[in-house]
What we know:
By secondary structure, this protein is of the alpha+beta class. Helix content is 22%, strand content 29%.
Amino acid sequence: MTAHPNPPVPEACEPIHYTAREFLACRRELRDILIAPFDESKCKGIGYNISPSELCYSVKKKHLLQIHRTEQEIYVLIPPHDTILTLSHEYLQISAEVAGCFLSRLHPVTQGLGNISTTLDPCWKGMLLLAINNPSSQKVKLTLSKKKDDKKDTKKDEKKEEVKPLVFDLENCRDRIVRLTVNSSHLGDAVLTPKGDKLYYQAAFEGGYDLWEHDLKENKTKIVMKSVGGGAMYPDKKGENVFLCTGGGIKKVSVSTGEPKTVEFEAFFDYQPYGEREYIFNHVWQQVEDKFYVKDLHGVDWKGYREAYSRFLPYINNNYDFQEMLSELLGELNGSHTGARYYGSGASLSTAALGVFYDETYNGDGLKIKEILAKGPFAIKKTDVTPGCIIEKIDGKPILKGRDYFPLLEGKAGRKVLLAMYNPANGKRFDVTIKAISSGEQSNLLYKRWVERCRKNVDKLSNGRIGYVHVRGMDSQSFREVYSELLGRCRNKEAVIVDTRHNGGGWLHDDLATLLSGKEYQRFVPRGQYIGSDPFNKWLKPSCVLICEDNYSNAHGFPWVYKELKIGKLIGAPVPGTMTAVWWETQIDPTIVFGIPQVGCMDMRGQYAENQLLTPHIEVYNAPEKALTGEDQQLEAAVQEMLKTVGEKK
């Protein structure tokens, strides 16, 4: 069928294949007409040849017709005396300035086919419904698409000069290694311009990713954009611009000026959530089948579970329930690091926190402060606010007894907040402006408060003889903190307690075991004065490790290594066996993530660590009623054990 708009479709337009950039290119060229996908060869002097899709419905037989495929073409056979309905392969979007009609193409007409002519209305959006009639008494073949003739392209390729393979000078290449970034950081993607004179890269220090430009000729580095987020980077063909795809958007950075611009685009796709969830379900099942750390999948009937759980798919219409169902399926494996997660869009306005504990026994208007967190908003700014003061208003709005005050802090994380204060001790009312923090920042302050309290308790119980460090996570930052504390603040202690409780894992078992297993082999003694020993960068004195029930993954792996190598004693509660390396995989719907324990850790006796309970040398539980009063029985037991190990002070 031929669509004949008025005015005619321009011929100068690049092909479109459902990408945002090419959608926009077509719109700029055609202006009043958007056709996707666009094939320049179908654009004729009088119109554009619309092609039928592979969805062909027989009006007479009332069902879809079979589609035939060969190496040369795809076609359908239209039954005699029948009319088929088919959607156009193209999507059309027409402005109010365009109208037209549909005419039969010559070749189908010569075969005896005809179509029911209709008009192309202004402001039309969508695919077209085409009615094609076969009035003859025989089946008629309707070609839906043909394989493109590559002969022309072959001739063009023959004319091109032969591309010579690149030759690299690999001799002494290691002597030519040059650092391209000025600072150590977490690196994202990077792009070197075709001329090789500028390097664009993403780097994150304490916050998110920034876009940097390093001029290799001038040896100068500068920030192009702050907080761009992580994502892929692509140069254009001419090397004049770099495109940054991040945060669901596209930014274009000019190589010559470094000026960034946001690229606006729109794109269309056929979203099929039920089909997508079915695909993800089958993909998850197959990935487990192929990658689980033991071939027998812990002996479960994995095929049977596929049938049992797939029957729920038609009734799931949201990702909350979908991730729950996936987690139930993966849970049948009885393994760690399984299950699915759903990362939906968070709150548009983040509720702020003020970095204080409130007095829960206070029964009047306002919020009575019981404790001010160290390094919180009230601690880093000099104010007259002390424990016992009452916050009466937030940004001029009163806090009433029995009313929820959280709406008064909504959307104010990271912003300045005006607080009306009252001090009952002296009857003084005054205003204070502080910068509110997020709930995540407050959680970090609470963690530091807990660590500091543990450290002070150890100092008090041991009279300063025993050191204390907590391993927050099995990652680089935690290791640096442990290293600094152990060989800094604790260097002159007689022993140390290494606390791994509530650690979610990572990959640090060998680093920590090596750090704690130092063996003294020489001392530094200038003029009879002892000043240190070798190895200087390892702990040489007694230690113990605290563990508890919610240690996970590598926080099970490190204590196991510590016990296996007989470095010291484990103290606390048994830890479930969860030491495997996980494959966390983001799906085609990026809000869904699932995990497979892919690499099992086997000891030298042939036993996997997975599902093997790790028992401490000294088993101690923290009773809930005592924990509520601030008593830490596990920590106290560790102090007593270390004092017994080091003996009486000489």
